[in-house]
Amino acid sequence: MEKKMINLIIDGIAVKVSEDSTVMQAADSVGIHIPRLCYHPRLSSVGACRVCVVEVDGAKNFPASCVTAVFEGMKVKTNTPAIREARRDVVELILDNHPKECQICERNNNCELQQLATTLGVEDYFYAGERKQFPIDSSSCSIVRDPDKCILCGKCVRVCSEIQGVNALSISARGYKTNVGPAYNMDMKDSVCINCGQCTLVCPTAALTEKDGIKETFKNLSNPDKVCIVQIAPAVRVAVGEAFGFAPGTDKTYEMVTALRMMGFKVVFDTQFSADLTIIEEGHEFIKRLTTGGKLPMFTSCSPGWIKYLETFHPEFIENVSTCKSPQQMMGALIKTFYAKKVGIDPAKIFSVSIMPCTAKKYECARPEMNSSGFRDVDVVLTTRELAKMIKQAGIKFTELKKGEFDEPLGESTGAAPIFGVTGGVMEAALRTAYEVITKKELPSIDFKDVRGLNGIREAIVDVAGTKVSVAVVNGLANVHKLLTEIKEGKRKYHFVEVMTCPGGCIGGGGQIYPQGDIEAMDKNLYTQRSDGLYDIDEKKKLRKSHENPHITAVYKEFLQKPLGELSHKLLHTHYHKACPKGVPSEVRDTVSIG
């Protein structure tokens, strides 16, 4: 049904928009930017901050444009002296109750509040008064919460609820005691938080940030008794350039290698190698389940936020999850076993670092199961943001770097590996290998485009030697909850399901570079540009199927012996278990896993 069009006037300009538009959307459509703070294009609008107020003829007050619907004949003014003063008053009041530490803040020079103060002409602190004071919560291994920097915009609450369906955060209390945090005032580590970090991406003021890994990394880089080895995840390479002025999706793989060597890393490996390895192990696991009547559907296990979500909210599906570790953890295990033995390094002297687009990877590497070699697989995880900060702190001119090369033998990968960084990529990579392993025939078409795209849930049926294999790809945990519920109710049936915690997969990970510049403009194209960059890397690779990687073959021949073998099970596989947050009161503990 066609939507009715509405005619209105904004600042003397005739505007025509659909009847379900807000004043803010109508203004945007004709190039009039109304300042905003609590608004985000992917979240519901609540009109909490009052920065986006406008004048509407006939209205008794100044309505918030983000939640005010248009109507026929409406007349709006967005830039009158009274409106400018009202907006300044709002921002001045927020600043009065905000820490005055911009120069040492994580968000300095990329802070929405800071930008608004400049744009609106705020020149002084006008309202002296009582200030809120809350302790910093650094209990989580992934996320740090600083309530004093919170401006109560509610974006973190909405992204956690609407996009992720976790509801780990809420606004509580009133007046100066109002704050955003987990239920029952518990610490983040004891809450239902799944460490995804989506809250850190939408927080405008650094009230939520990732746990710092930079200090420990620099400390070990300066220690002559440590051999510092680093690995780089697929999605990092198409996002890190944004911190240095490059367009999203620009491949900066080999410049990163050079930068890391300049910082002091002795060995630089590519997590894409272990992505290929993951496909071999996970592909064989899926084939075994498919042909021997194993537990189906099988879910992928590469996304640690999803695993924590599963253990907390849907433990009934734990047996459906692949036992494979993620590429990060597989690489960590190989570094401290296979590689250490090959080059004669004491594993105890290895300091293993991974560069990830994901804050939940910090949680994953700290899990007690991730030490099957006798040593912690990965010692420190750095986000894409932290890598960019380290490069700047080291005085490295990233825009002028020459391309470096990964170290062998854990640095070579096929085209199936980079697409791990985008939703649908793990599924496509697995199908490329599973099809040829089962049929012993070459794929008629290597691109499984049915599983590509950024939609929340996608389905496909693949004909494998006469067997119709039903697969699904899902990203964003609110979508995951919907899918799991319908599987339990028998409304959906699959053989194989790829799950990614974050919207778009790793390209939208909670540790990626903060959107630069206009958030709304960036948000529309950011994930598409990053995913296009990864697919472009895939297409340029000579080998595009994981089982064709000769270095993978060599690792099995020299060390692992065979997929799903005794040693690979010990080092590359793990187990998961039902979890319940420690801080949840006893009367509700039994209901937490229901979801």
Helix content: 25-40%
Reading side by side through the largest sheet, how are the strands ordered? 2-1-4-3
Task: Let me know the number of strands.
Answer: 16
Tally the helices.
Answer: 18
Instruction: Compute the separation of the termini in Å.
Output: 35 Å
Q: Mind telling me the CATH class of the largest domain?
A: Alpha Beta
The major sheet is characterized as: 4 strands, mixed
| Shape annotation | globular
Looking at the structure, the CATH topology of the largest domain is Rossmann fold
Structural class, from helix and strand content?
Answer: alpha/beta
Characteristic terms for this protein:
595 residues; 18 helices; four-stranded mixed beta sheet; Ubiquitin-like (UB roll); alpha/beta; Rossmann fold
